[in-house]
Amino acid sequence: MMNGKIKGHKPPLxxxxxxxxxxxxxxxxxxNVYKQRVDKGLVSxxxxxxxxxxxxxxxxNVSSVHFGGGTPSLLRGEDIGAILDHVDKLWGLSADxxxxxxxxxxxxxxxxxxxxxxxxxxxLSFGIQSFHDAALQQLGRDHDSxxxxxxLEAATVLFDSVSADLIFGWHGQTQxxxxxxxxxxxxxxxxxVSAYQLTIEDGTAFAKAExxxxxRAVDNDLxxxxxxxxxxxxxxxxxxxxxxxxxAKPGHESAHNLAYWRGHDYVGVGxxxxxxxxxxxxxxxxxxxxxxxxxxxxxxxxxxxxxxxEVLTAEAARDEYVLMGLRISCGLSLTRVNEIYPxxxxxxxxxxxxxxxxxxxxxxxxxxxxxxxxxxxHVTEKLLAG
Length: 386
Known about the structure:
single chain; TIM Barrel; nine-stranded mixed beta sheet; 15 helices; 42% helix
């Protein structure tokens, strides 16, 4: 991109579908979620929204479809199948397209998993968070360790890739508890692990509890030690640390998330979904209506769900690409950075951070060094500030 213009061919397109309903709102969650309800009209609105995105994007090939939330495993298999068929008719799904869904262990009866498989899903990501029952109660989860273990084991029989999401850094966690969580996830067959540090987000129930003096997260030093242990144990088990919070056995990396981190275009449908689309050389950042009823009404009136479509400046597009690209182990392309927004200040800051050991460069690739990954937000802030 030069002066906001995108050059070259269009890479594959990713599609994100946000299902906003949950059976229970977790006290640490600040996503756009709502208590569970029956909402058949939302599936129809999502499909109409997808049609409008196709009219906007033009012909593309879809490399991944991801159902996130919320708790999209509350959806029926028939609805998932209808949405996937619609995406295929609109754009065409690649032969090896990743079709994934975020699932709650409580929605993992074998009949439901079989329906998901029949619908066309080939990847599931379970919000396990922990196998420690006291921790699950503290984190406000509605499953226990027995249910989590059974869900993972059942899913690995049916699906090509199964991921376990774990949370570290909750108050009371020890390295032994964390090691046990990781061991159980691996023994159950998970070929991908997302390990997220518990952060206290403004407006959440956990933020209110901490304001009252009730600890919910460990201190930064212990959290860093726990993160080190996650890396050590998973690397020893043959996983690659391909993104700051994500580990995978070779061949089981998340294709959908890699589309984000590599700066590719992606459709965003469903209440509150974000999207990125390059049209006539301009890159747009979109945000859909937040509330489900407002989203449905918006689609009914305008045939599309997004209410914001901001054209990114060249500098903003560069910044976003750098912020995402430094998260993955293979880093980012400096050639692409300079195509988007050449900036001598960036080059000078990069040289300083390389000399300090926070960044590394190999030919035209730039990536975070191990000590840079530990404070990546600070490193990218310095890099982009120049």
